[in-house]
Amino acid sequence: MGTDVLVIGGGNAALCAALTAREAGARVLLLEAAPRALRGGNSAHTRNLRCMHDAPQDVLVDAYPEEEYWQDLLKVTGGRTNEALARLVIRASATCRGWMQRHGVRFQPPLSGALHVARTNAFFMGGGKALVNAYYRSAERLGVQVRYDTPVQRIELQDGRFVAAWAGGERIEAASCVLAAGGFESNRDWLREAWGRNARGEWPADQFLIRGTRFNQGTLLRHLIDEQHADAIGDATQAHMVAIDARAPLYDGGICTRIDCVSLGVVLNRDGERFYDEGEDFWPKRYAIWGRLVAHQPGQTAWSVIDAKAVGRFMPPVFPGVVADSLPELARRLGLPEDRFMQTLDDYNRACRPGRFDHTVLDDCATEGLTPAKSHWARPIDTPPFYGYALRPGVTFTYLGLRTDETAAVRFADRPSPNLFVAGEMMAGNVLGQGYTAGVGMSIGTAFGRIAGERAAAAARVQEVRHAAA
Question: Where is the FAD-dependent oxidoreductase 2 FAD-binding domain (predicted)?
């Protein structure tokens, strides 16, 4: 037998699994598809973890109890979630930080542009890249073997039991295995297949940008679903999808390309029309719906428009916006139809009702008699200079994955595998049927990574006993 526990993947969930299995005494081999310099998958682009807590804790203020966390998740998913698994994640988020710190992760108070989540989210000192590096250092110190540039294409099973993995022409045996190789967001053909053509004859997926790693091709996920007939869960079109700067790179743009001024202004499509309530709820609870909203607009592009009053109230993106001293000039510079643009802005400005503006609460600044309404933070866009940001859908990770339970076991015809487990984006669809709220992806990956690692180590011990008995 080559090793006790084989972990396929190199991001947060994979590392949590590898470290936990190693702590349990297992020999662990981790296979990362990316080269060392690009290791860590999407986790390298993260910055925080959503944490349940019943009282203030170091970097977390006030309290964020289980029921509130659950209600937040229930709201963004529209009920498309497994409550038992969601609550498992929520409860695990209350106790994981000590373990993370023992493996070198450090936390800091939130930055000024992220104060909305000071109560709910713990921020990593140095961001996700520092977290990933800390975990790899700890793995090396503990004796976890790591191989880079080693994508796995398929696995061997026998009656639902893991036997070996194939990386190119190499066969790698192990007593148990954890799958944590991410979603399929970097696979353009699969995205096209999932989204198809829209009523305008467009292929929406052709306009998607990928916020994270280029290595999440979904090869192993497709193999498990299509060839090994593992139980799947989720909708292939559902994803953590954010409205990002249209000038962002195709891959690895990360957080700095996100446009966070949406709730402070209006968003127009290429016809110069608004299409959704920009002030529906706090931005950390709604930012992840905007990529999907933009994906359904003509050309999969939209524009966020603000005035000088909004400057300094949001985390600035990496690229400066288009600036103009008048709204007609801004419309021309953005390439939008000036007459319709001005009609939309005039209608919006007239509909804004006076209130007490406060971006830290759900304030009483709303529109009246306007469709779609703006429920909060609605102030006339009337103070030059004016700014516009072109938006395109930015996919973070996809939600189609493998069905599992509280043991993290992969299931075949509703029967759990005795030694094949799954964690992270490959199973996040069990908790996230749709929607997203900041930091929950890292909560899922951390909770199920640790469960999968523990279960894989236990399965390897059982296998060792059987071999000894034979």
Answer: 4-432
What's the Cα-to-Cα distance from 343 to each of 337, 340, 376, rounded to whole Å?
10, 5, 21
Query: Could you give the CA distance from residue 257 to residue 246 in angstroms, rounded to a whole number?
Result: 9
Locate CATH 3.50.50.60 in the chain: 5-183+218-237+399-469
Q: C-alpha distances in angstroms, 205 versus 225, 309, 435?
A: 22, 35, 18
Secondary structure of residue 439 in the 3-state scheme: coil
CATH of span 5-183+218-237+399-469: 3.50.50.60
Q: What's the DSSP call for residue 369?
A: S
According to CATH, the topology of domain 240-394 is Flavocytochrome C3; Chain A, domain 1 (3.90.700)
Beta-bridge mates of residue 162: 157
Task: Say whether pTM exceeds 0.85.
Answer: yes
Model confidence pLDDT, tens digit, residues 37-78: 999 999 999 999 999 999 998 899 899 999 999 999 999 999
Contact present, 60 and 53 (Cβ < 8 Å): yes
